[in-house]
Please model this.
Amino acid sequence: MAGECVAPPSGDTLRTIRQLFNSPGISSGAYAPMSDGTLLAFLLFLCGAIAGAFVTYLFALSKVAPPSTRDCPTGEMRVSALYLYPIKSCAGYAVESADITPRGFRHDRTYMVVDDDYRFVSQRKIPAMALVRPKFIDDTTLIVAAGEKTFQHTPVTSGECVDVVVWSSTCQALDQGDEVAEFLSEFLDTPGLRLVVRTHAHFSLFSASCYR
Model:
């Protein structure tokens, strides 16, 4: 807006504006008709006033803090919600508090779904994973809700190691058995899915170990 007001109006534009200001409804009474110079000065003043008001408005906006931080002291952040995701890439649930371990929140991403080649799968490949709603009801027991069905899973904490691939990394994990695997495969309409837990991570109060 300010850039458009720098160049003076053309002769035709100036004459049109002067005719409007000098019309009987405006120029009658105590006001004398405006000359070209007076009119030009008036237009430049008007443009400057508008540009100044716009700059002042932008400056005022820059000083207003976002709603999420407006009530917080300088340098502090406010946590508005906490969510845990027991199975990687499935739905999460809200909690009032969470214990922090060296590897993140306890009970968060404890489990992972893999395909029959033991490569991890996510919503990128199976969008319906967002409809799987797992939730811990105590330190070890997991309730998995999917559609109208639920499955109560007690973790397998020892057994034979399997190598699972996550992106370009390979790590050891412990397969959680056929029952939960069949439950997930049926709901997600994807044969061969397995549920695993990483063996070296104390994500939960239980620790999983495996052997070759």
Notes: The chain has two domains: 3-62, 82-211. Residues 22 and 31 are 9 Å apart (CA to CA).
